[in-house]
Design a protein that fits this description.
The complex is a heterodimer of chains A (248) and B (389).
Chain A: E1 2-5, E2 8-15, E3 19-24, H1 35-41, E4 45-50, H2 67-81, E5 87-91, H3 93-103, E6 111-115, H4 127-140, H5 145-158, H6 170-176, H7 182-185, E7 192-197, H8 205-214, E8 219-223, H9 230-233, H10 235-247
Helix pairs in contact in A: 2-3, 4-5
Chain B: E1 2-9, H1 15-32, E2 36-43, E3 49-51, H2 65-72, E4 77-80, E5 84-89, E6 94-99, E7 101-104, H3 115-123, H4 132-138, H5 141-150, E8 158-162, H6 163-176, E9 184-188, E10 198-200, H7 203-216, E11 219-224, E12 229-238, E13 244-245, E14 250-251, H8 261-266, H9 276-279, E15 281-283, E16 286-289, H10 296-312, E17 317-326, E18 331-338, H11 346-351, H12 356-375
Classes of the chains: A alpha/beta (248), B alpha+beta (389).
Chain lengths: 248, 389
C-alpha cells in the first residue's frame, strides 16, 4: 500500500484482523525483514509494517533525519491510517524510534516490545577502529574504486559502523547514531518487553541492560546463542514470547 | 568514425533505469560495432551534464562512487549551432566535441518527453527515437489516449484532474469519479515505470490514491480497469510510415494485478523469484511470455492496434505500445506508449533475431534517414519583408 505521510511517498503492508500492531524495522532493513514474523502475528492481529523513509519502497527524507524526526513520521503514519495501536514492536533502530515516540508521548500503545533495540550509543564501539577507518579513507583514495570500496566496507564493519549499509542515507545515519534515547526511555510507563540475543554484536546486551533499567517495570529476556536479528534467527521463541506478552 | 553521444540519467524518477538502458543496451553494443566513437553524457539528478570515459562503467554508479566522481569533475556545456557540440572540460579550458548522432537513453521527465529531443532539433543533429511532438504526447497518458481515440482506437473510460485540485480537494474529485465503474486505476499522467499508480476498489482508496499520484505529477488520470484482463506490450521500431513490430509480450502477473515498478525493476517479477525457465523470459522488466499466449485472431488484432497507435502518435525510430485485452469480449484497448522502452526491450527483439548490435545499428540508421529527409525541407524563407519598414 502507498500513502503520502509527512510529504513522503510511503509504502507499508497491512494484514490480518484484530487489535493493531505496528512493526518498525531496523537500519538498512525494510518491511520485508518482518515478513514471516508479521504473517504469523496477522492470524490474531491487524499488523501494519511500514518501510521507514529511505528504505524499501518509501522515499528517502529530503534532508538528514534524526531519531526524533523518524518518531514524528511514525506518529503521522499512525494518524494517516487512522488507527490506535495496541502494540508497537521495534527492532534495532526501529526500537530506538519506538522508545523516542512512546517516551515523548508522540504516539501511544498499550504494549511496547523492543527486539535488539538500539538507541544507546554502542558501549563496545572501538574509537581506535573508528580512527583507522578515517585514516583508511585517505590511504585508500588512490586505489581503484572496486578495491577501495571493498576496503572501506571492511574497515567500517570493523569499526562497528552501519554507515555503508545504506549509502544514500549516510547523513541521516550520522545523526541517528548520535541520538541516545535513554532519557526518553525513563518517561515510558507503557508495559515493555525487551528481547535480546547474547550473541548480538550490533546491539550487545549492555544496551539491553541500559534500557531495561531506564524503563521502569520492563521485562528483559536474553536468548542464548542468538544474534541481532532476534525475530528471524529465533522466530519461534520470539513469537511465543511476544504473543504471551501481548495476551498478558 | 562517427561520434555518437549517448545521453542518460536525468532529472527523473527513472534516472537509475536510464543508466541501465544506456550502459547495457546502447553504449556496449555501439562500441562492439567498432564503427563509432561513443561519448557518454551523464545528466545528474540536479541537471548537470558530465562527460567522462569512467561513466561507461557500471561500478561508478554503485556504492556512492558517482558522488565522489562528479564532485571532482567540471560540468559539460553544449552549443546548438551548425550541429551539436559538447563543451567538455580539458586541462586547458574546454574542448568542443562535435556530435554526429545523438542517442537519448532517457526515461521519464526531462528526457523521454521531448524536452531533450528539442535540443537536438534546434541543433539540427540526427537523433535516435521519437520526435518532440510524439514524445510529448506519448508521455502524457491522457493526451495519448485522446490522440489514439481520435484515430478510432479503443481506450478504457477515463477522467483527468490537475494536481492542485487533487491536493486541495480529493474527496470532491473522488465523487466526480462515480460516473466511472470501479475498480479504477489512478495514474500520474507523465510518469513511467508504474510509479505512483494505484488500483482502487472504492472511494476511500481512491482519495488516498489521488493523493499519492498528485505527489508525483500535476496531471492525474483516473481510468476504469479492464475486466478479464490480459496485458500485452509490443515493441515497435522504424519510421511512422513503416513500423516493424517485434513480438507481443505478456507480463506474467496475476490477472487482478498490475505491472508495477517493484515487479519490473526490483524483484524481476512477482512470480519470477522461483526460476526463469518455468516463468518465461526475464527481460528488462521482469518475467514475461514471448510471444503472448493469445489466439491467432486476438494476436493479430492486438498487433494491428499497436501498430495503429504507433502511427497515430507519430512515433518514429522506436517505441513500445502497451495494451489491455478483455479476453472474454476479445476487445483490445490502448493503454499507453513509451517512446523509449527500458533497455530498448532488447530481450524481445532478440526473439525475432535482432541482436542488441542489430538494434542500435537499425536505430542509428533510422535517425540518419530521417535527418537526411528533413534536411531537404525548406526551413528558412528569405524575404525583403524587413526592408519594407
Amino acid at each position: 500500500m502507498q500513502s503520502i505521510v509527512s510529504n513522503i511517498a510511503t509504502h507499508y503492508t497491512r494484514s490480518g484482523k484484530g487489535r493493531v500492531i505496528v512493526l518498525l524495522h531496523g537500519w538498512g532493513d525494510g518491511s520485508q525483514s518482518w515478513q514471516s514474523f508479521a504473517n504469523k502475528l496477522a492470524s490474531d492481529y491487524d499488523v501494519i509494517v511500514p518501510d521507514l523513509p529511505g528504505f524499501g519502497g518509501t522515499e528517502a527524507p529530503k534532508e538528514a533525519w534524526n531519531v526524533m524526526r523518524y518518531a514524528e513520521f511514525v506518529r503521522d503514519l499512525i494518524h494517516k491510517i487512522g488507527v490506535q495501536p495496541y502494540a508497537i514492536i521495534g527492532h534495532s533502530n526501529g526500537g530506538a524510534i519506538a522508545v523516542k515516540g512512546v517516551g515523548q508521548g508522540m504516539f501511544q500503545a498499550e504494549k511496547l516490545i523492543l527486539l535488539a533495540s538500539a538507541g544507546v550509543r554502542n558501549p563496545r564501539a572501538n574509537p581506535g577502529l573508528q580512527v583507522i577507518a578515517k585514516v583508511g579513507k585517505v590511504v585508500a583514495a588512490p586505489l581503484p574504486s572496486k578495491v577501495r570500496n571493498k576496503l572501506r566496507r571492511k574497515l567500517y564493519q570493523k569499526a562497528g559502523s552501519d554507515l555503508l549499509v545504506a549509502e544514500h542515507m549516510q547523513d541521516t545515519f550520522k545523526k541517528i547514531v548520535r541520538d541516545d534515547v535513554r532519557a526518553d526511555a525513563a518517561y515510558i510507563s507503557t508495559p515493555t518487553l525487551l528481547v535480546y540475543g547474547d550473541a548480538d554484536t550490533e546491539t550487545p546486551i549492555e544496551i539491553a541492560h541500559e534500557l531495561h533499567s531506564a524503563i521502569e517495570g520492563s521485562r528483559l529476556l536474553i536468548l542464548p546463542g542468538v544474534g541481532h536479528h532476534v525475530h528471524s534467527e529465533a522466530e519461534d521463541v520470539a513469537l511465543k514470547t511476544v504473543r504471551e506478552f501481548l495476551h498478558a | 568514425m562517427l561520434t555518437i553521444a549517448v545521453f542518460f540519467g536525468g532529472q527523473s524518477a527513472e534516472h537509475d533505469v536510464s543508466i541501465i538502458t544506456a550502459l547495457t543496451s546502447v553504449i556496449m553494443p555501439l562500441e562492439l560495432t567498432n564503427k563509432y566513437r561513443v561519448i557518454p553524457v551523464y545528466i545528474a539528478k540536479d541537471g548537470r551534464w558530465f562527460v567522462s570515459e569512467d561513466l561507461k562503467n557500471i561500478a561508478v554508479y554503485q556504492h556512492g562512487e558517482l558522488k565522489r566522481l562528479v564532485s571532482r569533475m567540471k560540468t559539460t556545456g553544449v552549443i546548438c549551432a551548425n550541429g551539436l557540440k559538447l563543451l567538455v572540460p580539458s586541462r586547458v579550458g574546454r574542448k568542443a566535441i562535435s556530435v554526429d548522432i545523438a542517442f537519448p537513453a532517457m526515461h521519464g521527465t526531462h528526457g523521454e518527453d521531448g524536452e531533450l529531443t528539442g535540443i537536438f532539433e534546434m541543433a539540427g543533429v540526427p537523433y535516435v527515437g521519437c520526435g518532440v511532438a510524439a514524445s510529448a504526447i506519448a508521455m502524457d497518458k491522457m493526451l495519448a489516449k485522446q490522440v489514439v481515440t481520435a484515430a478510432g482506437l479503443a481506450t478504457p473510460r477515463a477522467l483527468y484532474f490537475d494536481g492542485e485540485s487533487v491536493r486541495s480537494n480529493s474527496a470532491v474529485l473522488a465523487k466526480q469519479c462515480q460516473q466511472l465503474t470501479y475498480p479504477l486505476f489512478v495514474k500520474p499522467a507523465h510518469l513511467g515505470s508504474s510509479i505512483g499508480i494505484s488500483r482502487v476498489a472504492d472511494k476511500k482508496e481512491l482519495v488516498n490514491a489521488l493523493e499519492v499520484a498528485a505527489h508525483y505529477d500535476d496531471k492525474i488520470v483516473v481510468e476504469e480497469a479492464v475486466p478479464n484482463l490480459i496485458e500485452v506490450t509490443l515493441p515497435i521500431m522504424g519510421p511512422s510510415s513503416a513500423p516493424q513490430p517485434a513480438l507481443l509480450e505478456q507480463p506474467l502477473t496475476h490477472a487482478e494485478d498490475f505491472f508495477d515498478f517493484d515487479t519490473k525493476y526490483m524483484h524481476g517479477g512477482k512470480k519470477g523469484k522461483g526460476g526463469g525457465k518455468k516463468m518465461g523470459i526475464k527481460g528488462a522488466q521482469g518475467y514475461s511470455k514471448i510471444p503472448a499466449n493469445l489466439s491467432k485472431e486476438l494476436y493479430s488484432k492486438a498487433e494491428a492496434a499497436g501498430v495503429a497507435a504507433y502511427k497515430a502518435l507519430g512515433c518514429d525510430g522506436i517505441a513500445r505500445i502497451d495494451m489491455l485485452i478483455d479476453s472474454k469480449a476479445k476487445k483490445v484497448y490502448f493503454n499507453e506508449a513509451n517512446p523509449l522502452p527500458g533497455s530498448l526491450y532488447a530481450h524481445n527483439w532478440a526473439q525475432v533475431g535482432v541482436s542488441k548490435i542489430d538494434l542500435v545499428e537499425a536505430l542509428v540508421g533510422y535517425a540518419l534517414d530521417r535527418h537526411y529527409k528533413r534536411s531537404k525541407l525548406a526551413t528558412t524563407f528569405d524575404t525583403n519583408f524587413l526592408t519594407q519598414f
